[in-house]
Amino acid sequence: MSERLDQVMNRLRSDGRTGVIPYVTVGFPSLEDTMRIVPALEKAGADVIELGVPYSDPLADGPTIQAASYRALQAGMDSHSCIAAAKQLRAEGVTIPLLFMGYYNPILTYGIEGYVSDCADAGIDGLIVPDLPAEESGLLHDELRKHSMALIPMLAPTSTDERIARVVAGAEGFVYCVSVTGVTGARAVVPVNLAGFIDRVRAQTTLPIVVGFGVAERAHIEAIGKLADAAAVGSALINVIDSAPPEERASRAGAFIAALRGNGA
């Protein structure tokens, strides 16, 4: 398990504060933007950052992140360049936990052992792999453990209690709970059935819980904070970055995360 990630999640609990975990697609709108945006997010108070590894068939992602991934791929981003970017971010002083959120095929193509080793060397603290079921995660999980990295599991509102128990049994870092039955994308309200879903997960694990998919405003963070330890925000942040003038992308991204975090979030 990642000591850096565990320290942050434990501190959120001890401080009674709701964490904010932004997602950015590496290489969107450009690699240079990513290198400016990530430090701006850290400075704005992000607790953990998800670095999205662009992929041609991101089945868990809605139109916003799909489009960001497509643009990054068109610019030549791949697993190797994402790892190099993470390594550069660490070299330039980023200290908070960094997670790669990406799909399994590029990991297999790269080679599991080499991918995990290179990620560890770059300072990545864990992986979120939406299309990797628990039953097929053994090889990747074992390799990550050799490098003290976490494999973050995902659960959906449709997950049965039996399924939840199976998924969280080998979980590390935190459990990522998808707030809706669907893909990523900013939404107006937090689903009314979220509390019952989180209660079912809490009954099966003592790990921190992060809620994602649909988080777009401060009110969402406040609502999620009553149920979970942190909220992940992706599509809404991508929209902010995409709509900003090039010279203001990093500053507007940071301001958006600062506003989500609020005073004493």
Model description:
This protein is an alpha/beta fold and 265 residues long. It has one domain: Aldolase class I (TIM Barrel, Alpha-Beta Barrel), CATH 3.20.20.70. The protein has twelve helices and nine strands. The protein has helices at residues 3-15, 31-43, 63-74, 79-91, 104-110, 112-122, 138-146, 161-168, 194-202, 218-225, 235-243, 249-261; strands at residues 19-25, 49-52, 98-101, 126-128, 150-152, 154-155, 175-178, 209-212, 230-233. A nine-stranded parallel beta sheet has the order 5-4-3-2-1-9-8-7-6. β4 (126-128), α7 and β5 form a beta-alpha-beta unit. α2 packs parallel to α12 (249-261), α6 packs parallel to α7 and α11 (235-243) packs antiparallel against α12. The longest helix is centred in the N-terminal third of the chain and has 13 residues, at 3-15. The chain is globular, with a radius of gyration of 17 Å. Residues 181-189 have low confidence and may be disordered.
The share of residues in extended strands comes to 5-15%
CATH architecture: Alpha-Beta Barrel
Look at the structure and give the mean pLDDT.
91
Would you count the extended β strands for me? 9
What is CATH's topology name? TIM Barrel
Q: Profile the largest sheet.
A: 9 strands, parallel
Widest sheet: strand ordering: 5-4-3-2-1-9-8-7-6
> How do the SSEs run, as a string of H and E?
HEHEHHEHHEHEEHEHEHEHH
Question: Which spans have pLDDT < 50 for at least 5 consecutive residues?
Answer: 181-189
Looking at the structure, what is the overall shape?
globular
Q: What's the gist of this structure?
A:
With 265 residues, the protein is an alpha/beta fold.
